From TrEMBL:
Residues noted as binding Ca(2+) 2 in the record, renumbered to the chain: T183, D231, T234, D239
Binding-site positions, substrate: P152
Residues that, per the record, bind Ca(2+) 1: D55, G60, D62, S64, E76
GO BP annotation list: hydrogen peroxide catabolic process; response to oxidative stress
Domain Plant heme peroxidase family profile: residue ranges: 13-311
Catalytic reaction(s) noted: 2 a phenolic donor + H2O2 = 2 a phenolic radical donor + 2 H2O
Pfam families found in the cross-reference section: peroxidase (PF00141)
Name this protein carries in UniProt: Peroxidase
Annotated organism of origin: Zostera marina
Residues the UniProt record annotates as site (Transition state stabilizer): R50
EC number in record: 1.11.1.7
Family according to the record: Belongs to the peroxidase family. Classical plant (class III) peroxidase subfamily. Belongs to the peroxidase family. Ascorbate peroxidase subfamily.
Binding, heme b: H182
A GO cellular component entry from the record: extracellular region
Length: 317
């Protein structure tokens, strides 16, 4: 038990006050950077939310996803499933890190910056506030091969998805709450093309939406950057419309649709569709949990000077 509330937290202990003495202006600096970036580039928020999810599910919340590849090593961010993560999501973390290296050099980990940036962006999009525990260390390695099988894909069955989340300590309900993140952002055509170009009648896909997506994606194999909103109703607002869309045939990914179909997840979709307060409450709890998955403490990690490079280059990273 810490009696002196102003004492520096013990090494290895996470706390909302972790940088209170060493970098008192941290939260303001991150918030300022994130606000400027999101106003200029509105796709940043959704990108960062997906970025932290992919970081935490592969090797824990340790900023391993921010490392650049080099001639010795193909890093996580170059794993196939991560190639669609937008550059602006990486950029906002780099910018916050640069500002912090002026403010308090060598103090704040990139993993903590990512967690704070995600929180601030969720609020900017209209979502709920939550506290972020701090004191994560940055990873000492990053390999594209570590990502394989850790990140969910829309082609997976609900059973496979439930198992994947369970392996990281999340219940089916927490999975449904977290996937409410699809209330913002985009998916590229190849992620939902099989639904849209199927000639079989599909009661889970509104015919007008199907037609619209066919048009938008008609040349998707050549125009690989074409994407559609995950939440067609309020694509830039963090709300519960994602869940409301599903019973109306307005879900985009087959995994989104499956959440409504399957008896183990359906009750939670219906709950969150009817009750945004319940969604926000459960999303906050699940996000706090997500941001603590396999956190590295003490000498299991380092505080990077640059978020895209280890402090010491070596051939075994
Ligand atoms: C059920 C499991 C999930 C599956 C199968 C899944 C799959 C996907 C796919 C295929 C995309 C489109 C990527 C692209 O084409 O660029 C996407 C986007 C996105 N995902 Fe998920 N996801 C899942 C859960 C989650 C969770 C738990 C979060 C965060 C907490 C999340 C956050 C996002 C966000 C914010 C986007 C939009 C990214 C952007 O606009 O740049 N997803 N997801
Ligand atoms: Ca990681
Ligand atoms: Ca929305």
């Amino acid at each position: 038990v810490r009696i002196d509330a102003t004492a520096t937290p013990a090494e290895g202990e996470l706390s909302v006050d972790y940088y209170k003495k060493s970098c008192p202006n941290l939260q303001n600096v991150v918030q300022q950077t994130v606000t400027d970036k999101q106003i200029k580039t509105s796709s940043t928020g959704a990108g960062v939310l997906r970025l932290i999810f992919h970081d935490c599910f592969a090797t824990g919340c340790d900023a391993s996803i921010l490392i650049s590849s080099n001639s010795f090593n193909k890093a996580e961010r170059d794993a196939d499933i991560n190639l669609s993560l937008p550059g602006d999501a990486f950029d906002v973390v780099v910018r916050a890190k640069m500002a912090l290296e002026t403010e308090c050099p060598g103090i704040v980990s990139c993993a903590d910056i990512l967690a704070l940036a995600a929180r601030d962006l969720i609020i900017m999009l209209g979502g709920p506030y939550f506290n972020v525990q701090l004191g994560r260390k940055d990873s000492l390695s990053s390999h594209a091969s570590d990502v394989v099988g850790k990140i969910p894909m829309p082609t997976m069955s609900i059973e496979e998805l439930i198992t994947l989340f369970k392996n990281k300590g999340f219940t089916a309900q927490e999975m449904v709450a977290l996937t409410g993140a699809h209330t913002v952002g985009f998916s590229h055509c190849k992620e939902f093309a099989d639904r849209v170009f199927s000639n079989e009648s599909d009661p889970s896909l509104n015919p007008r939406m199907k037609l619209g997506l066919r048009k938008a994606c008609h040349d998707y194999k050549n125009r690989t950057t074409v994407a559609a909103f995950n939440d067609i109703m309020t694509p830039n607002k963090f709300d519960n419309l994602y869940y409301q869309n599903l019973p109306r045939g307005l879900g985009l990914l087959s995994s989104d649709v499956a959440l409504l179909t399957h008896p183990q997840t359906r009750p939670f979709v219906l709950l969150y569709a009817a009750n945004q307060t319940a969604f926000f409450r459960d999303f906050v709890l699940a996000m706090e949990k997500l941001s603590l998955v396999d956190v590295k403490k003490g000498n299991r990690g380092e505080v990077r000077r640059r978020c895209d490079e280890f402090n010491e280059l070596n051939t075994s990273n």
